[in-house]
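cron nightly-structures :: item 1 of 1
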Amino acid sequence: MSFSPLSSQPDYNGLVKFLVVPFLESPDSLKVDSEISPRTSRVLIRVAIEGEDKGRVFGRGGRNIQSIRTVLQAIAQASGHVAHLEIFGSQTAGRDSAGDDKPHLSRSAPRRPSRSRH
């Protein structure tokens, strides 16, 4: 039995949509663009996701997006390509509030009272 490679040019846009749409509340806002560099066999896949859907796509600890990257890299490798995935998105309306313009202060650990030596 011999291994036959997949089609010469996988449908990266369709594959990304297939993998990402189940996480989205508004799938119409998903924008996908891909470019294959014939000279370097590099595939650049750009994904634009609006609002809170970006958090769902990334998942807790980035697990979802890492799985998506792994699938894309496997398909690309089987086709002789190297895949690079870039994610773009806008802030949600709640995060664009005027109160967010202030710098965020980081707090240090509470200080212990010093022991007096007698």
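cron nightly-structures :: done
The two ends are 85 Å apart (CA to CA).
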